[in-house]
């Protein structure tokens, strides 16, 4: 696994929620940048509109500039919040679990054991095919699923191969037959003549 799927910030975040014996992180990634494109674009467009309105209405309505500035600041605050929230949200997997961390003020962690995943579907919208993101839908045997849909995943084709490979390895390890323990020989069960007879005779 190359560094593309193991960014240092994401690894540190997932390590907060791993348990002993579950330290082997397979991959971790943020969601696609498209999730923050709308609030940033809205704030930039609003800034241009604000300048035009202030230039045209400032003489007749001086308070219009103040209102436009307040609205623009609100949109900039929204964009900044969404950007920071995106930076602290991570989706990753260890050899045992899938983990999704999200939320800034209210931190949330959703988890699903890999051995509980019975099926997984993968979809890409038309825009997702152009920009390179997709959506995973996970099915498990339980009815209540803390982690079911993970959308806007970047490099989704490659990530799908990584995740399915990890799932198959987990199932093979789980279904592999246990090796029989080596049988210890009780000296009382061995005939006396075998214990006294040397291995090699000259």
Can you describe this structure?
- The model has no long low-confidence stretch (mean pLDDT 82).
- The chain is elongated.
- The longest helix has 26 residues, at 62-87.
- The protein has 2 domains: 3-31 and 89-173, PH-domain like (Roll), CATH 2.30.29.30; 39-84.
- The strands form 2 sheets. Strands 1-2-3-4 form a 4-stranded antiparallel sheet, sandwiched between helices.
- It is 44% helix and 21% strand.
- It has helices at residues 8-15, 34-57, 62-87, 126-131, 156-175, 192-196, and strands at 25-29, 90-94, 97-102, 108-113, 117-123, 133-140, 149-154.
- Strand 2 (90-94) and strand 3 (97-102) form a beta hairpin.
- The protein is of the alpha+beta class and 202 residues long.
- Helix 2 packs antiparallel against helix 3.
Q: What key attributes describe this structure?
A:
single chain, about 200 residues, alpha+beta, 2 domains, 7 strands
Write the layout of secondary structure elements.
Blueprint: H1 8-15, E1 25-29, H2 34-57, H3 62-87, E2 90-94, E3 97-102, E4 108-113, E5 117-123, H4 126-131, E6 133-140, E7 149-154, H5 156-175, H6 192-196
Antiparallel strand pairs: 1-2, 2-3, 3-4, 5-6, 6-7
User: What is the residue-averaged pLDDT?
Assistant: 82
> What's the CATH class label of the largest domain?
Mainly Beta
* CATH overall fold name of the largest domain: PH-domain like
By DSSP (H or I, 4+ residues per run), the number of helices equals: 6
pLDDT < 50 runs, ≥5 residues: none
Give the CA-CA distance, first to last residue.
59 Å
Q: Give a short account of the largest sheet.
A: 4 strands, antiparallel
Domains counted in the coordinates: how many?
Answer: 2
């Amino acid at each position: 696994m190359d560094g593309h799927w193991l960014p240092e910030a994401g690894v540190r975040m997932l390590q907060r929620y791993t348990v002993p014996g579950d330290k082997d992180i397979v991959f971790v990634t943020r969601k696609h940048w498209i999730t923050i494109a709308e609030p940033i674009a809205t704030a930039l467009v609003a800034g241009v509109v604000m300048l035009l309105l202030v230039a045209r209405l400032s003489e007749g309505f001086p308070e219009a500039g103040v209102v436009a500035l307040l609205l623009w600041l609100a949109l900039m605050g929204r964009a900044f919040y969404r950007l920071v929230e995106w930076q602290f949200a991570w989706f990753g997997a260890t050899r045992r679990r899938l983990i999704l961390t999200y939320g800034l003020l209210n931190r949330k962690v959703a988890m699903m054991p890999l051995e509980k995943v019975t099926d997984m579907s993968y979809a890409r919208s038309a825009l997702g095919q152009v920009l390179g993101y997709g959506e995973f839908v996970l099915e498990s045997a339980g009815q209540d699923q803390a982690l079911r849909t993970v959308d806007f995943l970047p490099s989704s084709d490659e990530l799908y191969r990584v995740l399915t490979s990890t799932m198959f390895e987990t199932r093979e390890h789980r279904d592999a037959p246990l090796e029989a323990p080596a049988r210890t020989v009780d000296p009382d069960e061995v005939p006396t003549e075998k214990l006294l007879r040397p291995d090699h005779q000259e």
